[in-house]
Amino acid sequence: MFSTLKRLAIAGVALAMSTTLAVEPVLAQGRQLSFIRDAEIEHTLKVFASPILQSAGIVPDAVTIALINDDSLNAFVAGGQNIFFHTGLLSDTDLGQLIGVTAHEIGHIAGGHLARSSDAMANASTIATLFTLLGLAAAIGAGRGDVGAGVMGGGQDIAMRSFFSFTRAQEGSADEFAMGTLERIGWSSQGMLEMMRKLGSQELLPENRQVEYVRTHPLTRNRIEAIRNFVETRSQNNGKRFPDEFYEMHRRMVAKLVGFMRPDIALRRYPEGDTSVSARYARAIALYQKGSVTPALKLVDQLISEEKDNPYFHELKGQILLENGRPAEAVVPYRQAVKLAPEEGLIRSSLGHALLEVGDDRLVKEAMVNLQESARLERRSALVWRLLASAYSRSDMQPQLAYARAEEALARGDVRAAKFHADRAEQMLPAGSPEWLRAQDIRVMVESRVDMN
């Protein structure tokens, strides 16, 4: 489900924006972070990245892909094996350019560049940087940009730029990794060269007019020349296509983003005469965003009839119905989406939400089962734990309620509330049970990191 921070999408993408993207964690010029969650877009990006990660010996499931609502061209790695993408990068680059950027960012992970930046972190506005990172973690966990903004103090722009900017040597190393890995896979690096040329002109602009990627990834003519030389004289993959399915996945990702975030533009870009799946997908989303629910549902039903096993079409229908006050109707497509994609925690949370919204106590147990599974898959989602707490409350399961509230508070970054509820859960839950052990872990973790006095 597509959800943003500014506009809470009911279907289970906690306080982000009905899609799934990640932009750079910067509050420059007073901007607030706005995270986005969307199962389909996150899945698409993981599919694109997996061959590169596997070639580098990195387990794809160990890497988190996050999306931030920002129109600028940017991507970055932070906090370990986490890759962040700006929505602007995803919607304004072609497939080859996006894969080139993805390979470059994975190069920073494979090269251990973040670990080697620890000295720079210690030397550059340490307090501001630490609070920025704490805010970032809280925002991702809670799905709320205002949480992160509350933690972050002044001076974060300078501190973050100092921490996230990579040295020219590291940038060159990430480029070499990207080109070498793409070549081994049998993929072209031409998109990477196109992206670098697009960004190269930015270096001549004043810093406040440069796109974020240039400010956090130092460019030099030598870097661009090295990539050009590789593409033109050494690569054996120029002109080769990526896997055929990648192109349609990319088209649908862009269509979905434009439909949710720029509905008026979507309706102009994808006219009724365009009957491609991506065009109808974009129009359905744009129409629903503009309140035209009936024609939107008609288009979604067409898409479902053509691709009955596509969980994301069923998910979209559920989201439209749920957000328009029809939770009982939303349950049916959500159930089908979960059946088709049982490991998508965001979809399970949406089904759980819809079941709770129906108001029928006979459905609470089903909601609880799906929310418990969603919590396993989306442990850092405050919304999932909040919904699960509601299910426990309606079932009068007080020990489990206290535990869920502890997890929810922890995901929001409210350590005092987390300790309070963890203490209660530890007192009420059976000693040695999984929830009791986790509540104990939360209490000990909070006490060891924060002065509670």
Account of the 3D structure:
This protein has 453 residues and is mainly α. Among the domains are: 2-234, no CATH class; 397-453, no CATH class. 65% of the residues lie in helices and 5% in strands. The protein is built from 24 helices and 6 strands. The chain has helices at 39-55, 87-91, 95-110, 113-116, 118-123, 126-142, 145-151, 156-164, 168-185, 190-200, 212-216, 221-234, 244-261, 263-269, 277-289, 293-306, 311-323, 327-340, 345-358, 364-377, 382-394, 398-412, 415-428, 434-449; strands at residues 2-4, 16-18, 35-36, 64-68, 75-77, 82-86. A hairpin with a 4-residue loop joins strand 5 (75-77) and strand 6 (82-86). Helix 6 crosses helix 22 and helix 15 (277-289) packs antiparallel against helix 16. The radius of gyration is 22 Å and the shape is globular. The model is unreliable at 5-31 and 118-156 (pLDDT under 50).
Low-confidence regions = 5-31, 118-156
Count of helical stretches: 24
Order of SSEs: EEEHEEEHHHHHHHHHHHHHHHHHHHHHHH
List the strand order in the largest sheet. Answer: 3-4-6-5
Q: What is the gyration radius calculated from CA atoms?
A: 22 Å
How would you describe the shape?
A: globular
Report the structural category: mainly alpha
Question: What's the β-strand tally?
Answer: 6
Give the quaternary arrangement of the chains: single chain
The main β sheet shows up as: 4 strands, mixed
Q: What is the rounded distance between the termini? A: 41 Å
State the helicity in percent bands: 55-70%
- Name the average pLDDT: 83
**Proportion of beta-strand residues:** under 5%
